[in-house]
């Protein structure tokens, strides 16, 4: 009897180890997810993420019949509506090509010959990091493969090509260790939270083979922003992940969005907790295209009323925007340019900016370059914000997370040419009734979905917004400037959910110029339109407080690279405002 029992135990032991071997083999060779690891091995198991090596044939340059050593690789290619974006990757020690040395090369998809069908000069080349570049090429004829080449080194192999209308294009790991993914192509409704259970996030290099990717839970999804639970293995491998692993979103039971979204972190050291005291009280973020000639006035003016930091999201400018930003930075302004080539993504860009500003800015305003914060009270911006957010009501202390500021829309004011002293002095006639509003927000007060409609954000439940009385603060929106400037609005709108001015859609919308239609044809009476009341409030303050007493020049009229000094600023009374001057909602 003992012998039979011993055999019985041995048989079960052999079966146990055989079963364990089968399960382990199945997990290793059939893909895995973060939740699988936690279930099978517990929270302490931390596998190492490994990355595939590229084959030698991928490191060749097409140059006649003989491949030569690779100098760069085309990492990704994205087809936008009217141009092509190519992301180049160089070896760390390599010298980056200049715009003059690079060519946009168009190859036939069906013809294996390396002889280019067409060559054109790139519209722009931007250096994103020490070993990476973004090249903008004109859109070529349909059916051609687009890559880059150089006159000395031949044609470089084309990279994976993606269509813009279905793509995961950016990803950041937030301070709470979640991943925020920015996507196109899910077609979700604006200002609505969608059902997160229908989706999952995937991490890896090749999304065509789901067995080789990490999967994770979608925590929230709204508009074009997805928040994911970041797998522990990704957080622990952040140095490698940052340059190698991409993130995308998969519709359960459906397909996975193509992705160029490589993980980024909010700081060099990873996901640091928010500081108790941030370095800047007031910041401003904007998305701009070809605003170089107005940027200097916009930055200098706001510096003089108390703004300390500027985030410029450059949306495919082809003027001197980069040089103006560099000159302002060299003059002492804390300003940075973030390359944002994605079309009709203003909401996503503002959410991206809010994440970046969370660790640096107590408050950040989201306004355009033709919008100026005007403080009729004469206070500095940080004083106005402090007064408005330190109120006490009958309900006790209230946490204010967003300040909404009304916008006055100014017209051409009788002008036919760009005013020499700047928009703040030149345009003095506007519509009587304010149009819409813009917001100054506390970044940590934003709802985790990051929903916004450009003009304001959705807030967490424990925060409220406040409407500012126009006697305290207003936005002067120089919306209808001289025709030379205004006609540029017909190129493309930057917001996701509004029709372009040339589209035969919502022609009567308030987002358009009344009675103008869909064509950029100057009306005979353009210079006198949109003038219902004269308003010289901001003009008077600028000339009185900011003009140089020696030569009457304004800071943005000078060629000096020095930051405007305190002699341009008049000290004002900073007493508290009264509760009756605003309305709490």
TrEMBL record:
One GO molecular-function entry: glycosyltransferase activity
UniProt KW Membrane keyword: yes
Coiled coil: none
InterPro entries: Glyco_transf_92, Nucleotide-diphossugar_trans
Family of the protein in this entry: Belongs to the glycosyltransferase 92 family.
Protein name: Glycosyltransferase family 92 protein
Membrane-spanning parts: 12-32
């Amino acid at each position: 009897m003992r012998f039979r029992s011993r055999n019985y135990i041995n048989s079960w032991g052999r079966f146990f180890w055989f079963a364990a071997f089968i399960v382990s083999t199945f997990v290793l060779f059939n893909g895995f997810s973060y939740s699988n690891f936690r279930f099978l091995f517990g929270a302490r198991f931390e596998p190492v993420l490994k990355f595939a090596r590229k084959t030698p044939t991928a490191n060749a340059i097409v140059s006649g019949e003989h491949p030569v050593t690779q100098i760069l690789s085309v990492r990704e290619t994205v087809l936008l509506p009217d141009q092509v974006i190519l992301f180049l990757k160089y070896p760390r020690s390599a010298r980056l090509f200049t715009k003059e040395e690079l060519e946009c090369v168009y190859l036939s998809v069906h013809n294996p010959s390396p002889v280019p069908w067409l060559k054109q000069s790139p519209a722009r080349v931007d250096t994103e990091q020490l070993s990476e570049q973004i090249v903008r090429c004109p859109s070529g004829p349909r059916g051609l493969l687009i890559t880059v080449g150089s006159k000395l080194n031949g044609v470089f192999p084309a990279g994976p090509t993606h269509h813009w209308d279905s793509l995961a294009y950016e990803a950041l790991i937030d301070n709470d260790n979640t991943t925020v993914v920015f996507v196109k192509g899910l077609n979700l409704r604006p200002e609505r939270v969608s059902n997160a259970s229908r989706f999952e996030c995937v991490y890896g290099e090749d999304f065509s083979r789901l067995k080789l990717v990490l999967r994770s839970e979608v925590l929230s999804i709204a508009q074009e922003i997805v928040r994911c639970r970041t797998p522990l293995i990704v957080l622990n491998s952040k140095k490698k992940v940052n340059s190698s692993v991409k993130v995308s979103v998969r519709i359960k039971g459906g397909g996975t969005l193509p992705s160029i979204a490589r993980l980024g972190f909010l700081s060099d050291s990873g996901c640091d907790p928010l500081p108790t005291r941030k370095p800047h009280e007031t910041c401003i973020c904007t998305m701009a295209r070809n605003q170089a000639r107005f940027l200097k006035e916009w930055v200098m003016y706001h510096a003089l009323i108390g703004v300390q930091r500027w985030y410029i999201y450059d949306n495919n400018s082809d003027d001197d925007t980069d040089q103006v930003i560099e000159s302002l930075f060299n003059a002492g302004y804390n300003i940075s340019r973030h390359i944002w080539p994605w079309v009709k993504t203003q909401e996503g860009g503002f959410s991206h900016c809010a994440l970046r500003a969370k660790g640096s800015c107590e408050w950040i305003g989201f306004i355009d370059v033709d919008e100026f914060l005007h403080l009729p009270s004469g206070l500095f911006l940080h004083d106005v914000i402090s007064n408005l957010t330190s109120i006490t009501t009958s309900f006790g202390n209230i946490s204010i997370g967003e300040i909404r500021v009304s916008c006055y829309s100014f017209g051409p004011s009788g002008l036919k040419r760009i005013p020499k002293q700047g928009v703040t002095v030149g345009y003095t006639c506007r519509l009587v009734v304010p149009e819409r509003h813009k917001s100054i927000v506390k970044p940590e007060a934003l709802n985790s979905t990051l929903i916004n409609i450009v003009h304001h954000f959705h807030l967490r439940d424990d925060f409220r917004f406040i409407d500012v009385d126009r006697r305290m603060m207003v936005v002067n929106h120089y919306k209808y400037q001289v025709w030379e400037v205004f006609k540029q609005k017909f190129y493309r709108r930057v917001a996701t959910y509004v029709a372009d001015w040339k589209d035969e859609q919502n022609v009567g919308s308030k987002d358009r110029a009344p009675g103008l239609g869909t064509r950029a044809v100057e009306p005979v009476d353009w210079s006198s339109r949109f003038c219902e009341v004269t308003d010289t409030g901001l003009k008077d303050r600028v000339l009185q407080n900011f003009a140089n007493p020696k030569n009457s020049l304004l800071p943005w009229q000078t060629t000096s690279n020095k930051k405007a000094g305190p002699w341009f600023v008049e000290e004002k009374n900073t007493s508290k405002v009264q509760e009756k001057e605003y309305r709490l909602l």
